[in-house]
Write a structure and sequence with these properties.
Two copies of one chain form a homodimer. By secondary structure, chain A is of the alpha+beta class. Chain A folds into three domains: 26 residues; 354 residues, Glycosyltransferase, CATH 1.50.10.100; 286 residues, Beta-galactosidase, Chain A, domain 5 (Distorted Sandwich), CATH 2.70.98.70. Helix content of chain A is 34%, strand content 24%. In chain A, helix 6 runs antiparallel to helix 7. The longest helix of chain A is centred in the N-terminal third of the chain and has 24 residues. About 3% of the residues of chain A have low confidence.
Chain lengths: 749, 749
């Protein structure tokens, strides 16, 4: 009996081993798996969203097949035809391969094969791309980055038609195309391949993906761990000023996974680049999971890739647009194809979070693999629950100790404050310590400018970063944060900025009526400490929430401080007088100030300066504490912009001259509405009568907010002790305030 | 037998007469009729859209009843509380009255009664409104116009609760409130009441409506025919500079119906004011129809009111927004409540056009009367057909001989050109002869600026017209038309402008591939003839249509010509070099030029100057014929605007200096697309290679449009003979063109 069991166990063991070996040798094996293909074929015609996705992609691919294959000699930058065509080719080839597996129609396999052989014929003798603007020029594209994109997709396409090809055909493709291609973007370009950067992630994944199809252990190792001896000197910068090689720099896919992601899944470059990097991260990690699960790549660093999916989806406004932190193109959203991959893989290989199903439903399309099938099946089974976003605080830094980003949300994204107190964010980082942006549902109230680049629009500098990205978008004054003496944080020096980060002070989102994030920055301006506390407050009797912003400054010596608020829309009312100069001149000649026209200037006529505007049917009022000597400036972006690369958008700026320590207290408040259809103007006035700084010391800053209804609210922050269980007592004008924790808030008696 | 028939006939005749007399004395009788109420009660709960409208209005009215009645002492301008409250009161009272009839719940009748008695108590001793800015101040509101609004609605409210009141109550209301109210806005303010103007239409309708409820023949006659001896001298102007009394001026409702409407139903002030005026026109005409049909008011002037409904709905973009011709607030659309009335009455009393049903469906609400019920019933019966708009040419002037407005539409509103060659348009008219605006679906491509006013936003000049409305919005240079020597058409003189109009030349929309409108203007600049021809062209092999614009100028002596194009978005490419001055200065000091900043200037480097921009994901290119001496200016609105009343929007301007006769030929072309989500930039280049002026003489102007694909199109317009059957022969470079009619178009051989 025992013997029999042993025998059966042994047989089972061998069977499993054989199955495993067989599986590892079967194709497709990377993303779409043999087993996945079988499930899909069984369910075809039965799962509406999946079937619709097949139909949609089939229509696209059929149209391309109809047009014929074109693999033009590389010539153009992004935005030009050859760039577009090669990019389109790898996307369509990957899709055609999936269709071949699903529909078993040979025309798709033939299409991929023919295209690969056209590339094979061309690649053998292909020189480096003629547009040599990149620190790492590619061959098909102007940079190795895009060549890597090509290989990540083409590896999948090759995987799906692997069994369709003869071994001679495979040999030819591998010898003449895939191995030389992988070597070119890695061995020939270590300055591209061996970095800690999203470029390298793409490069590593590309080499790894093709390595997995071919089961080439050398390439797989090179993907995971980089090139051991790259011969590069420490130092060097890329086209964006990013470091190529730091001292003791790690390398390879795993290092790129460890370094830029915080334990919370925040990617240090910001959501726009995270969206871009997620694809190679997830695709190669998934391919490793499907072929060599023993490496644990998908689960590496305590499942950080799966956490990153959550973090990324949380870094969106109510419309699904990513917050444009650092270099980020506005309008990029979770409707981008890379996010379909992200959501599908995140659902399947993660915890099957039913909230992801409703994102997938909005996306309206799934991947043509087992992950997409799973989503479509579970949507059909009505398992989706709404994707409601809560406030979230995400740490930055590999260890989670380099500041972070807090997203405060009031109501169902009725008001969202995005408070950035992060690290530099590599070469795409902006010099905007303690800045924030504010959203009302899907509308920007106070903007983060984003990047200065017309991605893929060739007429605008080849679709690449424009010089105003550096001179304006990265500058401090272009952000809703404090500039000192009209200078840039860290003097605008990337190396210095990269050594520092803001410090988390506290975060509290338990009370939906008062949610607070607070952080400090001590390095941006040496000798000056900035401590900013941002709160979203919705008193129980109020129609709408507002944002309270306390910026406390401790400095050595006196300085000029500028605090801008970049709003949108038309000015409705001010409680200060201003004058408009007859001509518009730039506000300065450097550090971003050269890009601002001064449209008007004035002086406060009240301790609480108020400024109201109307945008898209909503009124807003900024109320801010002002001193008699303060200057109020109304600005407009667009000066010194010889090629009209900037958007012509307005700002309100408070300038406090010649001051040492000070506190800025501001409230931004949406109110009322205006409709051009009914012509009704409702609640067009602020509900705030005044702000009083009732106390300010090293230890405490207390603010009284007086409403036009006569009622007051009081907010006190403890400046030196953020412990949740610390007890505080503060006496102000005979009134004693006692509380526990870093802040106190209440309606006044 | 004969006798019997006679007897029956006689009885029937008496019965009808009795019924008629009974009907005429019954209440409600104006808009909602006794018979209508019965139909409604029978159908209640059975017609979804009608029931939903009842529920929506019931919710609003119930909320107001809950809040209690407030009739504050008048104090504020529009935008202030007392203005808002009295306006809200008459709207809610009219709705409450309808609910009383429909639901037979006395609380609604009581609410209206109580409100009316509060007004009765206040009105007796009410002085003229304290804000005396109007040429005709009201009592409840700052102008008689708003007082008239009040009475138009309150007459309906009174009508619905007439039978609920005791005769003593009626006597009190009529003696102390309604008759003095009607007399105040008419006899006491003939300068308001006796004009040809939308103000008077409201006044006439108000007096007439209350006259009909009370069956007061004197008031009814005063409404229809005005005040015979008004004691006013010829001349005088209102707040907007509009004439109060012209020589031989007609007066009263019927005259106001005859004068401003053209036989096509175009209202000379433009769609924004037509939308406003339609309500009193239709409401009083309908009330007359329901009480004294023998006057034929609703059918007056060959059913012009019903034609006007069609005309008005055709003066909208694809989103239903009215074209902001003359003074018009952008965003006003057929979703405004007045248009629900318009569509409902137009459907019921007109031809039951099933296209109106689909507009009503979009509006999502119907009137609570027999017209609304009819719409809801027919929608339920699936009678709706889509409201697809065609090209249309609408004459202006009481006799239809004072120019007009042509709306050319290509495809399903894929591209829409609104070409204005109308009369002055009364006091709300702009000095923009032969101007146009261009739309792509619901998006503005080349804008008409509209008005400078924040309607009902008290903080902006009391919600009234701002001075920049005169200095900018009415000026010639603020429009997409020709300015000569930096001056305004007619020297900006209203009296002169009012004596003239542009002249229709020809209009041809039979061929969907080439639709053309052409008109001439000889008075705007004495001695100069401007002849503009606007064509929407969609060659059969083209993806998208484009607009061709030929402006031919014949002048005495030499002049500087400015031709602006007010686009939106960001500049993508130009084929000319330009420089941006370090500071932005105003382009001039008067005639609207003082409001333009010069952002950049350049010179043509090609005979065909091209300028491309990107707006909301769509590329556009302007290609325009230029001379070497031309200047190209890039401008921005907003100079000399001390209170930020203007929108900061860009313009491209072609300046041709020191020229006598000349031709401007321009093409505006949407192409391709850009998506920040996919980051795909498609067809970002113009499809036009060049424009050639192949012939220009007094008799003919011929243009060759050469595509980047090498193919040419030729368009020739006959300048002196617009007869449809005239035959033309033109020889150009040995090629003979023969055709019939005012223009010729073809792809070249």
């Amino acid at each position: 009996m025992l013997n029999k069991i042993f025998t059966i166990t042994l047989i089972a063991f061998f069977a499993m081993t054989l199955a495993y070996v067989a599986q590892a040798k079967e194709h497709p094996r990377l993303i779409l798996t043999k087993e996945g293909v079988e499930q899909i074929r069984e369910n075809l015609g039965k799962v509406p969203l999946f079937d619709a996705s097949v139909e949609k992609i089939k229509a696209e691919v059929d149209k391309e097949i109809q047009m014929g294959i074109d693999t033009p000699i590389p010539k153009d930058f992004s935005g030009g035809y050859t760039h577009f065509r090669h990019k389109q080719n790898f996307i369509i080839a990957q899709q055609a391969g999936a269709l071949y597996q699903i529909l078993e129609d040979e025309k798709y396999a033939k299409y991929v094969r023919d295209m690969l052989f056209q590339y094979e014929a061309m690649y053998k003798n292909l020189p480096v791309h003629p547009q040599v603007r990149s620190y790492a020029p590619g061959k098909l594209f102007w940079q190795c980055l895009n060549d890597s994109n090509w290989l990540v997709y083409m590896a999948q396409a090759y995987d799906t038609i692997y069994d369709y090809l003869s071994s001679e055909e495979r040999q030819t493709l591998e010898d003449n195309l895939f191995r030389p291609f992988a070597d070119y973007i890695s061995l020939a370009n270590p300055q591209f391949y061996n970095r800690i950067h999203n470029h390298s992630t793409w490069g590593n994944a590309a080499v790894g993906m093709i390595g997995l199809v071919m089961d080439d252990q050398a390439l797989i190792q090179r993907a995971l761990y980089g090139i051991e001896d790259d011969g590069l000197a420490v130092g060097g910068v890329d086209d964006d000023g990013g470091t190529i090689k730091a001292a003791d720099q790690k390398r390879g896919f795993l290092a790129n996974l460890e370094q830029p992601f915080s334990p919370d899944g925040y990617y240090t470059e910001g959501p726009y680049y995270q969206r871009y990097a997620m694809y190679p991260f997830l695709i190669f990690a998934t391919a490793m999971h499907n072929t060599y699960p023993e490496y644990g790549v998908l689960e590496h660093k305590d499942n950080v890739l799966l956490k990153a999916i959550d973090a990324l989806l949380n870094l969106t406004d109510a419309d699904g647009d990513f917050f444009p932190l650092n270099d980020g193109q506005k309008g990029m959203s979770y409707f981008t194809p890379a996010l379909i991959t992200t959501v599908n893989i995140g659902y399947y290989y993660g915890q099957q979070d039913p909230k992801l199903l409703s994102v997938a439903q909005k996306q309206g399309e799934v991947l043509l693999d087992q992950t997409g099938l799973a989503i479509a099946l579970d949507l059909e089974a009505n398992k989706a629950v709404p994707f409601t976003k809560q406030s979230v605080n995400l740490s930055d830094g590999a260890l989670g100790d380099e500041g972070g980003v807090a997203v405060l949300r009031s109501g169902n994204e009725e008001l969202t404050a995005v408070f950035k107190y992060a690290a530099q964010g590599l070469s795409h980082g902006h010099y905007d310590k303690l800045s924030y942006s504010l959203y009302r549902q899907g509308e920007e109230v106070l903007q983060d400018y984003g990047l200065v680049r017309f991605v893929n629009i060739g007429q605008k500098g080849g679709g690449n970063y424009l010089k105003e990205n550096t001179t304006w978008a990265k500058s401090t004054i272009s952000h809703n944060t404090l500039s000192q003496d009209q200078s840039i944080h860290f003097g605008g020096d990337y190396q210095t900025g990269s050594q520092h980060h803001s410090d988390f002070y506290f975060y509290a989102d338990e009370n939906p009526q008062v949610q607070v994030a607070s952080a400090k920055e001590t390095n941006a301006y040496p000798g000056t400490e900035m401590h900013r506390t941002v709160a979203l407050i919705k008193p129980s009797d109020a129609d709408e929430p507002f944002m309270l912003d306390i910026m406390k400054v401790d400095a050595q010596g006196t300085h000029d401080y500028d605090l801008p608020f970049y709003y949108f829309g038309q000015i409705i009312q001010t409680n200060f007088a201003y004058t408009r100069p007859p001509t518009q001149e730039p506000l300065g000649n450097k550090n971003g100030y050269q890009h601002l026209y001064l449209e008007a200037s004035g002086s406060p006529s009240s301790d609480t300066t108020q400024f109201s505007w109307l945008n898209k049917g909503k009124f807003y009022t900024l109320s801010t504490l002002t001193h008699d000597e303060d200057n109020i400036m109304l600005t407009r972006i667009g000066a010194n912009d010889p090629e009209f690369n900037l958007r012509n958008e307005p700002g309100f700026m408070l300038r406090r001259p010649n001051t040492q320590d000070t506190v800025f207290v501001s409230i931004v408040e949406p109110h009322g509405s205006y409709s051009p259809v009914t012509e009704l103007s409702l609640n067009s006035n602020s509900s705030i009568a005044s702000i009083n700084l009732m106390h300010d010391s090293d230890a405490y800053t207390g603010v009284e907010i007086v409403g036009v209804n006569g009622e007051s609210q009081i907010f006190i922050v403890a400046n030196l002790d953020a412990q949740a269980n610390s007890e505080h007592t503060l006496n102000v004008n005979g009134q004693e305030y006692k509380w526990t924790g870093p802040y106190w808030y209440a309606n006044a008696e």
